[in-house]
Amino acid sequence: MSAPTATATRESLNGSWILDKTKPYSMKDYLAVMHLDELAILAHEKGEQEQDTIQTIELDDKQLTLHKFSRVNNNLCVQLRLGEELVELLKPGERVKKQVATSNGLKDFLIKSSLDTLNGLATVLDQRQLAEDGAFMQQTLSIRNEQTGETSTTTRFFLPYDGIPPHLIADKEMESTMDVTTDAADETDA
Fold first, then answer.
1. Where do the DSSP E strands lie in the chain?
2. Is the Cβ–Cβ distance between 146 and 121 less than 8 Å?
3. pLDDT digits (tens, 9 = 90+) for 35-58
4. Which of 26, 43, 68, 102 holds its CA 20 to 30 A away from the CA of 138?
5. Nearest to 124 by CA among 155, 145, 94, 96
6. Whether the Cβ atoms of residue 115 and residue 122 lie closer than 8 Å to each other
7. Burial of 186 (0-12, 13-18, 19+ CB in 10 A)
8. Are 65 and 18 in contact (CB under 8 A)?
9. What is the DSSP letter of 104?
C-alpha cells in the first residue's frame, strides 16, 4: 500500500482515510470491556500494526456508506440511512445487531450500535469528526458492557489517503475476472 499523503486536506469526510500509526493509541481497553481473551486482544493489536487500516467514507444528507479494510475488518461495508435504525441478525445464535447513524453535515457523523456478543450486550458509539483545517479525521470509539457497566473510550486519527482503496482494487479485480469469463464465453458461443 502506498504511504498516506500527510499534506493533503479535505473539506468533508468523503474519501479514503488511513489510520495514523504514528499517533499512540491502543484498542486493548476497548476490547477488554467485552472480556475478550488476552490472546485475541494481542492478535488484534499486532494485526493493526502489520496491516494498514483504510476506510472510505461516502456521506450525504441521506446516507452513510463506510468501507472498512483492515486485518480485522477485511473489506467490510456498512450502509446506513441517516436517522433510520438498521437491525440485523448475526450468526452464530441469531444475535441482534442494531445501528443508527446521524450527522450534522459532511464534516461529522455518529454511529450508535448495540450488539449481543458472546460476552454480553455491547453499546458502541463511533464518532468521526473532520479537523478544522481538514488535515485529519478523529475517531472516538466508546464502548459500554451493559451487563457489567464497564466502559472504555479510544481515540484514533486518520489521514487523507490518496491511493486506490483496497475495496476498489478488489472490485476492479472482480470486474477483470468477470470480463475475462465473459470474453471466454463469447468466444465459445462464436
1. 15-19, 54-59, 63-69, 76-81, 86-90, 95-102, 108-117, 120-130, 137-145, 151-160
2. yes
3. 778 888 777 777 777 788 899 999
4. 43
5. 145
6. yes
7. exposed
8. no
9. S
